[in-house]
Amino acid sequence: MDFKGMNEHVLKGNVEEVTRGTQEMLESGAEPLRIISEGLIPGMNVVGGLFKKGEMFVPEVMRSAKAMSAGIALVRPLIADSDIPTRGTVLMGTVRGDLHDIGKNLVSMMLESQGFTVIDLGVNITPEQFVAAAEKHRPQIIGMSALLTTTMLAMRETIKALQEVNLTDGIKVMIGGAPVTAAFAKEIGADGYAPDAGSAVELCEQFVA
Amino acid sequence: MNSWLEVLKPEEIEEIHAASLEVLEDVGVEFQLEEARAAFQAHGARVAGSRVYIPRLLIEQALTAAPERFLLEARNPARSVWIGGGETVFAPPAGCVYVQATGTARRSAVPADYIDLVRLVHQSTHYGTNGGGIVIPEGDFGSDEEKFAWLLLAGHWYSDKPQMGLNLGAKVSRLALDFSRMAFGGRPGCRILGTINPDSPLMFSPEMLASLLIYAREGQGLIVAPCSMAIATSPATLAGTLVVNNAEILAGLTLAQLVRPGTPVVYGNTSTIADMKTMAIALGAPELSLLVLGTAQMARRYRLPSRAGGSLTDAKEPDMQAGLESMLSLLSTVAGGVSIVMHAGGILDSFLTLSYEKLIIDEDTGGMAKRFQRGIEVNRETLALEAIADRGAGGNFLDHEHTLKHFRNEIWRPQLSDREVYQEGRDYQAYTLAKATQAWQKRLEGYSRPVLPEEVEREMLDFYHQRFGSEPVLDV
């Protein structure tokens, strides 16, 4: 299989073919980093473009991302962590008191599919947990999610906690979830708000540009 | 009798039923509360971790125990309504966080909105119930618990219609039952109707389970209603979504019947699709209306009252999109024979916003839908042979006795739709909406409070004061 063929299989979201192709390439001595940058990522870039145009939809994007990840998983052990191309690290979590994870997971997967490294903290994450994780991972971006009007206020506390230890200086904070608005984001001192997963990716792209 | 609008053939209903039983037995349902799992285990269900595998026998027994219809009582007995048995009862919205009125931008709801909305719903002949969390206001409350207590109290204070419940865990559910008990002065019966939302797919949170147990033990009314979004939290196919939803509803219903056989449970479903680009919930989708019709049919299969649908839209203003989406969903709801319809008016922006104007506009949506559902009555009298013979060719029927006898009942008249001839100089962009504004404003002016017995009001105020250390903001 050549790189062009791999791109096609990523576009089609064909996990088996991408896995087979990656193995084949590794066996024939292809350079691991080139498999990622020329075999996998270009296919995913096409997916990203088609999604923006409304020609591909979320289930298809996720399938393509899965195919790309299957390839990366095979190549990863052969490359130093620092050599793996990433557009930035995003720390994601649903705030304290809120157990809804689907929206957050969707944003995480869309971000990963577009080349970001995502560290997903899970649900019901306290301000202290956000701070500890931010200190440990030093991400470029922190993303917070809430589905309930009663829990969105925990976003304010989390930002306060981050501010108290000066973590907001180097880290951009974005928030999202059904009850959240751009006005609320501004009010609580978040750097950005995204109404849906596609926009969250665009926002992160702006943050790291 | 007219027949309901149906989308599933009898054998398809059975296929969905059989598939759900398979899911309940083999995939199981996550019950995140030990007490709930213990109840299942005590009746022979297999429990592994938080997963409960429910045998079909338990489901069948529960279905036998659950009533086909029940009387949801109002503190004013004349306003009590039957849930199930063929009538469609409209209920106000629940859980909106924003309000909107003509001439003002969307803003957060405040306590005064809630009071006004309860007053409006109280006077409307469209809405059969009142209260619950029509809007969840921002306000100066000591705690969320106090806020919900105030909503419950104000519901009883300003309206004697049957009250919808609030369920956000044990504390709030107990408050809902406490206030309704006080309002009823100890009178027995089903005096509140609360909703239990499973988290699709196939999961019940500790909060919802605690609420379910509290209501069931007191024999109070429960709506078990999942709100899955096909593609995301249930399968992309509507049949698959119905299988998952049906399993969720039957699981919740079974628990309620295990706790107290005969607990009134409504077969509810508010599921729809996720938009394939944004993954946002899409209420205006035709797929929602198909699920509403399927839900009503499944409920009839089980001889249970149903809850589904509403006057639903994703539009942000009471505009063209709001009109066409709301009509599709409410017409399906009514024509499908749904028993109780929450969000039967006022909803904008996928449940987030309540529009004062749309609260009135949807009285027309509902009126139109109910008239449509009544269909064409054909009998000797309605065939009007005598009148036709009397007035013959070239005559008119305007003042015929047959006309006078029938026209008011046969023909429905809108309060807002414009049927006049074109008027020069009239601003048609604003005309109908302005009529809606006038209607709700006038209704607020004409409101008078259906007071409770003095000692009951005292008891409620004392209860509130003791619990929260403050006085509730109400007009006394």
Automatic annotation (TrEMBL), chain A:
Per UniProt, the keywords (alphabetical) are:
Cobalt, Metal-binding
Q: Which Gene3D superfamilies match?
A: Cobalamin-binding domain, Methionine synthase domain
Q: Name one GO biological process term.
A: tetrahydrofolate metabolic process
SMART domains per the UniProt record, alphabetical: B12-binding_2
Q: Which GO terms describe its molecular function?
A: cobalamin binding; metal ion binding; methionine synthase activity
Family under the similarity heading: Belongs to the methylamine corrinoid protein family.
The cross-references to PANTHER family, in alphabetical order and at most eight, read: METHIONINE SYNTHASE
Q: What is this protein called?
A: Cobalamin (Vitamin B12)-binding domain protein
Organism, as annotated: Acididesulfobacillus acetoxydans
TrEMBL record, chain B:
Record's InterPro entries? Answer: MttB-like_sf, MTTB_MeTrfase
Keywords annotated in UniProt: Methyltransferase, Transferase
- Recorded E.C. number(s)? 2.1.1.250
Q: Which GO terms describe its molecular function?
A: trimethylamine methyltransferase activity
- Indicate yes or no for the key word Glycoprotein: no
| GO biological process terms on file | methanogenesis; methylation
Homology family: Belongs to the trimethylamine methyltransferase family.
Q: What is this protein called?
A: Trimethylamine methyltransferase MttB1
What is the organism of origin for this protein?
Answer: Acididesulfobacillus acetoxydans
Q: What is the lineage of its organism?
A: Bacteria, Bacillati, Bacillota, Clostridia, Eubacteriales
